[in-house]
Amino acid sequence: MADISTRYQSAFPKIGIRPAIDGRRKGIRESLEEQTMEMARSVARLFAENLRYPNGEPVECVIADTCIGGVAEAAACGEKFSREGVGVSITVTPCWCYGTETIDMDPSIPKAVWGFNGTERPGAVYLAAVLSGYAQKGLPAFGIYGNEVQDSGDTTIPNDVRDKLLGFARAGLVVALMKGKTYLSMGSVSMGIAGSIVNDAFFQDYLGMRTDYIDMSEFVRRMDQGIYDPAEYERALSWVKENCSEGADNNPPALQSTREQKDKDWETVVKMTLIARDLMIGNPRLDELGYGEEALGRNAIASGFQGQRAWTDHFPNGDFLEAMLNSSFDWNGIRAPYIVATENDSLNGAVMLFGNLLTNTAQIFADVRTFWSPDSVERVTGHRLSGHAENGILHLINSGPATLDGTGQQEQDGKPVMKSFWDISEEEAQKCLDATSWRPASLEYFRGGGYSSDYLTRGGMPMTMSRINLVKGIGPVLQIAEGYSVDLPEHVHDTLDKRTDPTWPTTWFAPTLTGSGAFRTVYDVMDNWGANHGSISYGHIGADLITLASMLRIPVNMHNVPAERIFRPRAWSLFGTDNPESADYRACTNFGPLYN
Ligand SMILES: C[C@H](O)[C@@H](O)[C@@H](O)C(=O)CO
Ligand SMILES: [Mn+2]
């Protein structure tokens, strides 16, 4: 059986820790060796205790063999890091060291420097010197410096330093995890959606990824010739019959499919799911069945399925495939989600991947469909919105690709959450399944039938919606809206939902307003959204997305993250400090895409 570890056909990238030191012997260096190495060890412990790889294992750190006092030791450390598969580097030091002689020169590795805030030895002076060196050499680095002075013997990591170390490392690992992997385009452009023109230059230059493309006829070949694991298929189909309840058919009676056709559709959508997953990550069982080439997969950590219309005019739609693969569980039990963008909207797929790799949770893919103002809601339902919803809400809804984790049926302290798969219980997975009904697809849209997942997201979850847009002349730009899912009274939800397609999953989303720019009103958020789709991640992860975007050199054109949570490379302030948003554009343009 294929699983998440095969999604990463190489080992996970490690974090390299570089203890930098003042190289002067006969007193200075010797007095600092232990303190410097201990800083490195404490950072390694912090990461191992707090960060996990997509398979749930703790993140691994590699510490340089010696403290780095100059060029020779910097080079030896660089060699060790490349041998060990280091993808992110942090330099730590309590003292003055020699700036450009000790720096990490690998341009594609995200880098940070923690300069201990003590005054016996000037770690902060080194920090300032080395960061200016990094800027001068076009190697943006993050500077970490505690707010409070520590005593020289203090080996603790203060909270503000800890937050920055973890924020940097989370985003840096995403950069490293994406590098060398594939976005698999299953089909081509869906209904003229520009995001599904899978742009190889974007993936290659900004994410270090390859793009690969297959025609959807490959699904037909594998179905007709039985190129999937027949034992898994039987197991999956009977699990689906038990756990995926078919909802009411919303099609006009004259149009409804026969029972026989509906049963056949179930078989087809289950096969499509196995095939899409095997296309992404391969499956050793296929080798045993004589399909060695197909067994390899395509090293894909994200994919998209065109579906509409070439496929869906004739075959069952991709909703089941997308919803199940994007969820944290299926007939194989609880497992990491796969990332599959509907309508092959690869730009939404990219932000789904960001959200997933930053948090190790499943992501909701949705159309950003309707802004419902408080007055409009009141006019059609008589209800006045309140709480998080008081300024209006966005109706996030698409034809069934959203992760079932998005039902909000997992809980922490009685509150709805979306967890990493290793924290999800059997009971919670079951609740997500029970909260979802699979409704025969709207045949006017999907002539080939299929099933759409219908559910309603529980309110009260902190969520972050994001989106990448490509702009000719600039390249990619990222937009971010933090907010909350909201509950509406049942009759209000029903009335609003029935105005659109009630067979699709709904999330009612209230973005957090700031009173200015794109976050003056909820209308402004919708009005400034760059495309028809958004990816919604559990939690307020806007700050991490901003950090990640700066590493990749993707400017952020709109966000509602408070200034004190924003963490970018130190060089960004050299592009202006009054208006960080436009400084971000200048910095990204100046340094250019990470892999170009
Ligand atoms: C069924 C329709 O074609 C939907 O799929 C459409 O509203 C979209 O999702 C557009 O992104
Ligand atoms: Mn859509």
Automatic annotation (TrEMBL):
EC number: 5.3.1.25
Active-site residues from the entry: 343, 367
GO molecular function annotation: arabinose isomerase activity; L-fucose isomerase activity; manganese ion binding
UniProt entry keywords in alphabetical sequence: Carbohydrate metabolism, Cytoplasm, Fucose metabolism, Isomerase, Manganese, Metal-binding
L-fucose isomerase N-terminal-2 domain residues: 181-360
Key word Metal-binding present: yes
L-fucose isomerase N-terminal-1 domain ranges (all copies): 13-180
Cofactor needs: Mn(2+)
Biological processes, Gene Ontology terms: D-arabinose catabolic process; L-fucose catabolic process
Catalytic activity: L-fucose = L-fuculose
Enzyme class, broadest EC rank: isomerase
Involved pathway(s): Carbohydrate degradation; L-fucose degradation; L-lactaldehyde and glycerone phosphate from L-fucose: step 1/3
Pfam family, one: Fucose_iso_N2
UniProt key word Metal-binding: yes
Chain residues that bind Mn(2+): 343, 367, 533
Location relative to the cell: Cytoplasm
Listed PANTHER family: L-FUCOSE ISOMERASE
Sequence similarity: Belongs to the L-fucose isomerase family.
Function: Converts the aldose L-fucose into the corresponding ketose L-fuculose.
Protein name: L-fucose isomerase
UniProt organism field: Paenibacillus albus
Gene: fucI
